[in-house]
Amino acid sequence: MWQQSAFTAAEASNPAVSGPTADPDGDGIQNLLEFALGTLPKTPGSSTFSISPQGTSVPSPQNSTPVPSLRLTTPATLPAGITLSIEGLNPAGQWQTLASATSTQDWTPTVPGWMFLSSTGPREVCAGWKAPAPAASMLRVRATYLP
After folding, report:
1. pTM as predicted
2. C-alpha separations of 81 from 64, 70, 78, 90 in Å
3. Tens of pLDDT along 115-147?
4. From residue 107, how far is each of 63, 97, 103, 120 by CA, in Å?
5. 50-145: CATH architecture
6. What are the b/e assignments for 63-92, b being 16+ CB within 10 Å?
């Protein structure tokens, strides 16, 4: 199990510390996402990745209107069993997967209207909605694990 690599036996038996949605270091990154990104779940500020909201116009010839977008940099190889997804809040208020990546598959878009502005490394992407963006849209990164 992925928890054994980061937690003592006592911590691993306590889901409030080692559960997939727990955040024992209080840095706002849940344990499963920390595992997926190779960071230390008990050490705040150990992140080797960045998620930066792009609050201004996205640099693209097709798009001069500010739209929700993000830049995500992750380790070159994701752990086996992990899927990273970029999700967007659609106009109906539901989260939907816009793009995903696994240890064996690079980022793949899954929704029309979603665009990659760059993918300059095996796991770096700057992405956003094509203008016009859906009203009140938001973006998030989610990790899932299937052993």
Report:
1. 0.75
2. 38, 24, 8, 27
3. 655 555 545 666 666 555 555 467 788 999 987
4. 21, 12, 10, 11
5. Sandwich (2.60)
6. beeebbbbbbbbeeebbeebbbbbbbbbee
